[in-house]
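Good morning N.,

You mentioned wanting to compare the apo and holo forms, so I went ahead and generated the holo version with zinc ion. This is what I fed in:
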Amino acid sequence: MFFQIEHKDKNCNARTGKINLEHGVVEVPVFMPVGTQASVKALTQEELEDIGTTIILCNAYHLYLRPGLETLSVAGGIHPFMSWEKPILTDSGGFQLFSLAHLNKVTNEGVIFQSHIDGSRHHITPEKMIQFQMDIGADIIMSFDECTPYPVSHKDAEKSMRRTIVWEKKGFEYWKERNEQSHSQLFGILQGSVYEDLRIKCAGELCGIDFPGFAIGGVSVGETDEERHRITEVSAKLLPENKPRYLMGVGAPEDVLWAIRCGVDMFDCVMPTRNARNGCLFTSHGKLNIRNARFVRDFNPLDEECTCPVCKRYTRAYLSHLYRAKEILAFRLNTLHNVYFMLKLFEKVRQAIREDRYLDFYNDFFSKYNIGN
Ligand SMILES: [Zn+2]
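and this is what came out, ligand included:
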């Protein structure tokens, strides 16, 4: 069985479960570190394994352009290429295509664009994007979708959503035909921006299709926290109960923990890794900026509650020094801690749900964790 729900919290919609994939079992709720270009920036695959990563995300748009299908095929797929034997989810790259590439033409058939790397011209169809993700052997693959900007009028949001639905249906048909020779599981993506009626319409079109799982897309694009929480809640309710639900691109603890209450199972976000490189570190009391002068002679661990290799060994003063001296080690240690923080948070989340105390856990967490910090 692809997805099994193991326990539903008695007091909210949070749930634990298992996703069975070709390269392993993923326990949910899960946080997936982002390895856009087949690398979680600053960490090695060994380090990711050592801190308990069960699945990572790579980006099909980037991998399509570089190293490209030929290299990945000769390598035997994305797993052997990067020497990662656990599950990989590939994002189809709609978001990156729309934000990085020079677009020439967008139609119901697909997109003609110029690469952000070398200006080369490409024609991508929804079928081709599914094909690429299947060919490189990703465990979970995403429908090709149009990234709706924010803010957007209701009319434009609907137009964009309609196009995405056409693309998703084409991608699904392609996937279904090839599915028997492949282990890649295709997820549908719910769009509709911040408009509840559009989310409902989109779900009406897509939820009847037998995608193995569904994602909530078009969030974390600049909307307010309230809008994000409302759309998450509305969308999660619209998606089938018996399939994994994935909230794309959302990773701040305050958003993630809210979404888990609503029954969302999977998350990815560049925030832990990107923040780390900017010196912004997660702690049980909220975010801390290691650039701050008060850490120069602070010989305490980064987070006294954290059991990561960084907090066990190094002090805030040392991390502060590394950052100021622009040592490569600063990026490495900061990233290791932030990714560990997220993985550990999710371990605690799963335990709390299993014991029907997720809401208590939620309240306890935010009684200490300062969001505005
Ligand atoms: Zn730590």
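The chain has a mean pLDDT of 96.

Happy to go through it together on a call whenever suits you.

Best,
F.
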